[in-house]
Amino acid sequence: MSEPSVQPSATQPVRRKRSKKVSFMLQLYSLGLIGVLAAAGYFGYRLLQGPQAKRMPVSAPATKVSPTSSTILNTSATVPEPPKPGQFTLAQVAKAEAAKQGTPGGQLYDPRSKDVALAFESLPLEAPQVAEAQAVLAKYLQAANWHERLSFVFEPERVEALMQQQYEERQVQDPEHGRLLAAGLITADTSKVLNLQFTCTTRPDAGMRANFHRNRNGALKLDWESWVAWSEKPWPEFKKDRSQIEVVMRVIASESHYYNYEFSEKWRWLAVKLRSPDGLHNVTGYVERTSLFGVALANLIGVPLPHKLPDGTPMPALNLPGAKALLTLRLAFPNQAQSDHCVKIVGLLADRWLLFPGEAK
User: How many domains, in total, are found in the chain?
Assistant: First the structure.
């Protein structure tokens, strides 16, 4: 008896189609997996190689920022060796010292109008000179009144009237200083000043700086004007009077973007925010962008301005953007000032609160 023939099931073609579809999907998955493994191998190889320099077009050489200066250096060319002593001007010395030491740059002027380089030499906090200066400062602060403090300040015959005005008319007390942070000697030509820097809660942006001169008898005396950040007018009075007469003010300067009233032309003016040493008052000062004074002031607050000044023009080192600078300025309101907030920066006495001989003139 013959075996009955088996007829193909109606479901077999469907199974074959599914099998082909599964095989096709496995092939796609395998190809994708191979691609992922290849990419992982490539990036692993690059990782083992370490970081590589970015390719730059020929017209744009690679640049970097020097760790001791905000000046941008061109790394595509050979870096020249620093000049040897005697091969550069005093103005170059001042800029180099400012960049190296982190101290204010710029020119100093003595009564003969000769360029003078500013140098700073750090001192250990336990140095005998530092201890001597701290003892003088302690006696100054322990004095019962400003009359007794006169014996501890530099040029008492000149600053006596200023101290009387400060303590009797304005009734302003000295800020309280905190711990000692740094000490050093500031040298300008034949002038040497011992500089101590303290923390100060009432001057969060500036701290306290005590500068000491040696008088003719060799005794250390406190530079009172830079200690209290003396200004010719109290800030509220200065803003209220809107005087067109130049006024010497010690300020904390930084970049501003406020242009209004007489100084609305941004293309012409550089706006500078000027704050009082205690940070409680402020105005906006303006100086012409294309002037030598404007470019120098811009460098101090970290605003690079395009200019056509000759090479070798004495300039402060360019600070980083957002920099704050302690300045002693001459300020004046414009004629019939429309605001008590916008003033013209007439002159820069010094890029610090300490004034050397000749700078106050």
Answer: 2
